Amino acid sequence: MHAVILAGGKGVRLRPYTTALPKPLVPIGDQHAILEIVLRQLSAAGFTSCTLAIGHLGEIIRAYVGDGSQWGLAVDYATEESPLGTMGPLLNLRHRLPDTFLVMNGDVLTDLDYADVLRRHRSSGAPLTIATYARKVHIDFGVLTTTDSKVVAFTEKPSVDYRVSMGVYGLSRATLEEYTPGLPLGFDELVLDLLAARTPPHAYDFDGYWLDIGRPDDYDRANAEFTTRKSLLLKGA
C-alpha cells in the first residue's frame, strides 16, 4: 500500500510555531513530530511506501525523514515549486503512483485506520473516498427564516450537525487523468467536478479521535492531550 502525504504548505495559521519549522515537523509531546507520528501509523497499518509532497522548508523535512527506513517505509519526494492546491501536487507524480493510494495532510492527529480507508475505497469503486468526521455548531441566537420581508419560521438557538473532511482520502489514479500537470487543483474543485459528472465520492464516516492542527489553539490542545492519547496514536510505542 502506498500513501502520499501533503507536506508543502507554509502553515501560516500556525505561526509563530512555523516560522522556522515546516508545519508537519512541529513537535507533539516531548519526543515526536506530527509527521513522525503519521509515518509510524502508516507503517503499523501495513503501508510499505510513501511519497512526501514538499515545498516550504522542504529540505528540512527531507533531512528529518530521509529514506523512511527508520520507520520501515520506502519514502520518496515530490517538490512543489509553486503552490498547486491540495490535489495539484499529485498531477506531477501521477506516473509514479499505483492504481489506488491514500492521500492525507501532514498535520493530522487521529487513530483512523488508514489501511481500512484504502480497502473501502478499492471495494467501493468510487473515484474518491473522503474520510469524514461529525461536527456540531451551536448558534447562540434565535434564527429567523424570512420570505418577502415576512418572518415565516423561527428557531431558538438551534444546533447544526454536519460532516467535514478529515484531510484523509482514498484516491484512484484514473480520477486525475483529465487534469493538466503543473496547474493548481484544489480538493474543492475535484469534488465539485465529480458531483457535476454524477460520479460522487464515497464517504468513510469516522467517530474516533481526530484533531486537525491548523491553529495555535489546536496545537496547544494536541500537546495537552498527547500524554493520555499516546498509546492510542502510537500503539506499541
Automatic annotation (TrEMBL):
| Family annotation (Pfam families) | NTP_transferase
All residue ranges annotated as the Nucleotidyl transferase domain in the record: 3-227
Name the InterPro entries for this protein: Mannose-1P_guanyltransferase (IPR050486), NTP_transferase_dom (IPR005835), Nucleotide-diphossugar_trans (IPR029044)
Matching PANTHER family: SUGAR-1-PHOSPHATE GUANYL TRANSFERASE (PTHR22572)
Descriptive protein name: Nucleotidyltransferase family protein
What is the protein's species of origin?
A: Streptomyces doudnae
Q: What is the lineage of its organism?
A: Bacteria, Bacillati, Actinomycetota, Actinomycetes, Kitasatosporales
